[in-house]
Design goal:
Layout lengths: L1 H20 L4 H31 L13 E5 L4 E3 L9 E5 L4 E2 L4 E3 L4 E11 L5 E7 L1 E11 L7 E11 L4 E6 L3 E3 L13 E9 L1
Antiparallel strand pairs: 1-3, 1-12, 2-11, 4-5, 5-10, 6-9, 6-12, 7-8, 7-10
Helix pairs in contact: 1-2
Length: 204
Amino acid sequence: MSFLLICAVLASCIPLSFSFMLDGQPENIQEIANELGKLQSEVAALKEMIQELQETCPSCAVSTKQSSPAFMASLSMFVTCNVDAPLVFDREQLDTRQAYDTRHGLFRAPVNGTYMFTATLAAQPNQGFHVKFVRNSLSDEIGYIFSDNGHSGWNERSTTIVVKLDAGDDVWLACSMPSNITGGNSGMEHDYHSHFSGFLIDAF
């Protein structure tokens, strides 16, 4: 695209350059001017095509110059979560496109595409959780992870989902039942008891 724009700039400068080069050769000026006119028309048409492609393909924003969307966030504290309350992973570990919001615990897709999300949750002895993945609204449930009460030791569960999203779609975790989920803020491995991550597999 940059190459075409450079061509357009050069083409706009060519008539002036040739007016100096061909001074005193009037028999050639009209022919060359005609050719330059054709070239400028072709460049203008190419610029118009590029503009149309940009407008009709917003997901083309993913390029070699821009990182592919990926994030990971962990839970920094023990959380008691009521029905339909969002589970906010408040400690950001990675966010290549600033698409994850630590204030509300949601990921907003920056481009259309197929995405993978993973959640790992931990519960202390005799505590449990029932948590759903949701897209845009609590009624659009796209995944589920749970651990029932009654276990005598610590329990950790993980699950992964793959889903198609449009640019602007939100994905987050919410409790489907009253839940108790363990996090950590010690600066050690315990900080990763519970975490939420995702990335773009393929844009479309």
